[in-house]
């Protein structure tokens, strides 16, 4: 993500003369984002990083839109100036004119930033950055920037462009994507967990061993894995833990509906010989296999 922004920033190097005549705005939809851009901008073209980019003929103004990508647990509400700094690597003389992490567009939480800076070619830049954060744990980048030294239709129409942004990606479309999030296995039993398997309920065989050959979860210890699921399909899972003696405890129909994709705890406990697993406030009885 950081490389994507830096690459676009370096592109903006031309400082030749450029005059602006009044141009019409055209509505375009790119990667689920609808916005109006000047008709003298190029068609959006896919880049090596799978983002889509539009520029003017003089290469003094750009609009770039990414696909949704994993937010790695970051949310709009938790987004700070330090997070923005990560996206601004490579700029000089950075001045953050505005940072708003409470913006809402089409019921989606969005971080907005307005930045002034210079690039390695000493071109003065003004950037408008939008980061929509979706409920499935993904986010997106919308970047609008232009050279302050050269007139452009983007600068002339910047307020209209920004006000036209709509997020057309519906929750259903968003939820159809796979999401990967941290799932922490908490061992509150008296045994060592040597293996932990999972499988969707529609599968007859255990699909994946989650710990790897070198990991043991000792009593009163925990281990975090990256867990991937689809939020509209395969939300019900079965789990099997195996201890050092080879005894298995199976937890069936574990429901991930409404789970927090910023991170969840899967806690295994035992009471009077009965094993339990707890996820998102729900508890599941374990079935022992010797």
What is the compact description of this entry?
This protein has 290 residues and is mostly beta strands. The chain has helices spanning 2-11, 81-87, 153-156, 158-163, 171-175, and strands at residues 25-30, 33-38, 45-46, 52-55, 61-65, 69-70, 92-105, 108-118, 124-133, 138-139, 142-147, 166-167, 178-188, 193-200, 208-209, 221-230, 236-243, 248-255, 264-271, 274-279, 282-289. The chain is elongated, with a radius of gyration of 24 Å.
Which helices and strands appear, and what pairs or packs with what?
Layout: H1 2-11, E1 25-30, E2 33-38, E3 45-46, E4 52-55, E5 61-65, E6 69-70, H2 81-87, E7 92-105, E8 108-118, E9 124-133, E10 138-139, E11 142-147, H3 153-156, H4 158-163, E12 166-167, H5 171-175, E13 178-188, E14 193-200, E15 208-209, E16 221-230, E17 236-243, E18 248-255, E19 264-271, E20 274-279, E21 282-289
Parallel strand pairs: 13-19
Antiparallel strand pairs: 1-2, 2-12, 3-4, 4-5, 5-11, 6-10, 7-8, 8-9, 9-11, 13-16, 14-15, 14-17, 17-18, 18-21, 19-20, 20-21
Structural summary, described in words:
Keywords: Signal. This protein has 290 residues and is mainly β. It has two domains: 2-175, 3-Layer(aba) Sandwich (Protein Transport Mog1p, Chain A); 178-289, Domain of unknown function DUF5300 (Immunoglobulin-like). It contains five helices and 21 strands. The strands form four sheets. The chain has a nine-stranded mixed beta sheet, with no helix packed on it. It has a seven-stranded antiparallel beta sheet with strand order 3-4-5-11-9-8-7. Strands 1-2-12 form a three-stranded antiparallel beta sheet. Strand 8 and strand 9 (124-133) form a beta hairpin. The longest helix has 10 residues, at 2-11. It is elongated and about 80 Å long.
């Amino acid at each position: 993500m950081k490389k994507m922004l830096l690459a676009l920033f370096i592109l903006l190097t031309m400082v030749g003369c450029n005059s602006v005549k009044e141009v019409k705005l055209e509505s375009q939809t790119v990667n689920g984002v609808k916005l109006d851009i000047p008709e003298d901008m190029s068609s959006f073209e896919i880049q090596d990083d799978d983002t889509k980019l539009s520029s003017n003929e003089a290469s003094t103004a750009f609009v770039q839109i990414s696909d949704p990508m994993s937010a790695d647990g970051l949310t709009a509400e938790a987004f700070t100036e330090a997070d923005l700094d990560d996206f601004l690597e490579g700029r000089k003389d950075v001045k953050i004119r505005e940072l708003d992490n409470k913006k809402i567009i089409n019921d989606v939480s969005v971080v907005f930033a307005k930045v002034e800076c210079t690039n390695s070619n000493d071109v003065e830049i003004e950037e408008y950055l939008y980061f929509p954060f979706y409920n499935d744990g993904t986010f997106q980048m919308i970047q609008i920037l232009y050279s302050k030294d050269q007139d452009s239709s983007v600068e002339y129409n910047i307020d209209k462009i920004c006000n036209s942004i709509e997020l057309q990606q519906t929750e259903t479309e968003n939820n159809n994507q796979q999401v990967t999030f941290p799932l922490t296995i908490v061992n509150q039993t008296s045994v060592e967990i040597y293996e932990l398997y999972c499988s969707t309920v529609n599968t007859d065989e255990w699909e994946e061993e989650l710990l790897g050959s070198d990991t043991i979860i000792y009593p009163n210890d925990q281990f975090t894995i990256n867990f991937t699921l689809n939020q509209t399909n395969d939300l019900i899972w079965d789990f099997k833990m195996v201890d050092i003696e080879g005894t298995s405890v199976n937890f069936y129909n574990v429901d991930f509906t409404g789970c927090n994709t910023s991170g969840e705890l899967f806690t295994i406990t035992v009471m009077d010989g009965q094993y339990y697993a707890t996820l998102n406030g729900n508890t599941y009885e374990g079935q022992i296999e010797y």
